[in-house]
Amino acid sequence: MSAFEQLMAFEHTTQALGQVAGRLGWDQEAIMPAGAAPQRAEEMAAMESVLHARRIDPQVGAWLSEIDEAQLDEVQKAHVRHIRKTFERTSKVPADLAAEIAKVTSRAQGIWAQARADEDVAAFLPTLKEVVSLKQLEGQALAAGGNVYDAMIDDYEPDMTAAELGAMFDAMRPRLVALREAVLAAKAPPQLTGAFPSAKQMELTAKLAASFGYDFDHGRIDKVTHPFCSGSGLDVRITTRTSDEPFNCFYSTIHEVGHAAYEQGIDRNYLLTPLGRGVSMGVHESQSRIYENQLGRSRAYTGWLFEQMKATFGDFGVENAEDFYGTVNRVNDGYIRTEADEVQYNLHIMLRFDLERALMMGDLSVDDLEAAWNDRFAADFGYAVDKPSNGVLQDVHWSVGLFGYFPTYSLGNVYAGCLNQALRKAVPNLDAQLAEGNTTAATGWLRENLQQFGGLRTPAETIAHATGAAPNGGPLLDYLEEKFGGIYKL
């Protein structure tokens, strides 16, 4: 076997073990008994120790040094690029630190969930301090004297920096704020009324997932506190949650189906290789957001959903499909990021981006985080946070150490705006199909032009390949202004 062949055989096993570790995380969130948390933390730490050792194995470095990349094709070069980056980055992080992070964040997840349920920030702060301290150490190791937060972002969006994100967000904010103010000053669409039993929500949500092409032979839907997607290749699982407001369930599901479709759509030849996963969280989020918003909240698709809602729940206070389109896209005051409308969603992300960057750079202490959150929220949204579960405790990300992840949500929205513009040009009769609950043309275009390639290209190259242009925020802002200007008659 050549050095490249030996490297890929070794990597195949590493990727398989990584899938096992991911399944432990899914199990912890979806079905693990609460009392198993201490043992699960040890199991996760053990798995991370094994994975860390494989990723920095000296033999990996030896194989990489032996490979003549001039002799490789495009796919082989991409494999080597990913493996080399992982090897070099992981080698900077001490094995004991990696294992401790895995152990502490696994334990922190349960502590956060209980603190959130109890509305008790103080109960979570000591653990959050541990997580922040450990992640700062990791960031310092990765940055090697450079910007700590940039090093963290690179885990989720390669080649992106806080400065670039900050400039993008600063450019977007004025138009978003202006649109928000205009919308909230206008007459709002009707709201839902009636009862929406949880069992019926789950029945309809499975139908919605199927309408977007989710492959149930290689996936499943479960209920959790915080919806997520887990896995890749032949085993891609999604989760959702139910509440008194059924759109939370339906659009969380469609969002996670977008993530799952990306993983299920990747070329099977890339299975259990570095290319067999989504290339970045920003690109991943572009799939979940275009499924959820530009497709799932479109006038055409909501017309079909209106009929499904009537068949499932009977009368729910909305008279016709056009009013229902407004109801689905209604801009409301609210605290929860995952339930935020398209107009305000990115403002939630910008808040988190600024706070976590300050935490990681040592400019904000964990003890001051709640006050900083509440002050920023009041300034951005015009009203006060009423309880911690609607404020600093609402998201799972910081408890599990995902610093640098939040900004990729807004970046995904930007990418989705670019993709939607290209999709609409490529499929001019798209709305006629969506009106029948048929997303095949849209999802097929996304699979053909983006999803199948997995990690073959860099994030920016992935979007440019699909759309024919470098990503920028203009298409997203134009889409939002046109859509909500129409709904609210601005």
TrEMBL record:
Entry-linked InterPro entries: Peptidase_M32_Taq (IPR001333)
Keywords on record: Carboxypeptidase, Hydrolase, Metal-binding, Metalloprotease, Protease, Zinc
Assigned EC number: 3.4.17.19
Pfam families according to UniProt: Peptidase_M32
Active-site annotation: 256
Cofactor(s) needed by this chain: Zn(2+)
Binding sites annotated in the UniProt record for Zn(2+): 255, 259, 285
Cofactor note: Binds 1 zinc ion per subunit.
Family annotation (Gene3D superfamilies): 1.10.1370.30
GO biological process, any: proteolysis
Domain of life: Bacteria
Catalytic activity: Release of a C-terminal amino acid with broad specificity, except for -Pro
Gene Ontology molecular function: any one: metallocarboxypeptidase activity
UniProt family annotation: Belongs to the peptidase M32 family.
Function: Broad specificity carboxypetidase that releases amino acids sequentially from the C-terminus, including neutral, aromatic, polar and basic residues.
Record-given protein name: Metal-dependent carboxypeptidase
Organism: Shimia isoporae
